[in-house]
Hints:
The chain has helices spanning 14-38, 44-59. The chain is an all-alpha fold. The chain starts with 13 loop residues before the first helix and ends with a helix.
Amino acid sequence: MSAPAPCPSALPEPDVERAESAAERLGGVRTDLANAVEWGSVTQLQADRFYAQVQARIERGL
Length: 62
């Protein structure tokens, strides 16, 4: 026999969970890019463009 399904209210909401994960990922990307700019590895313009690309991909669920 299989275990009973958890109460629906006990399950995380996919949209909320996805939004939290996306925010966390984007925060990490932003931090890494700020470091890269500080170290002179990329320009601020390059970092901003890359961030926009990553943000768009995450928003599409990639």
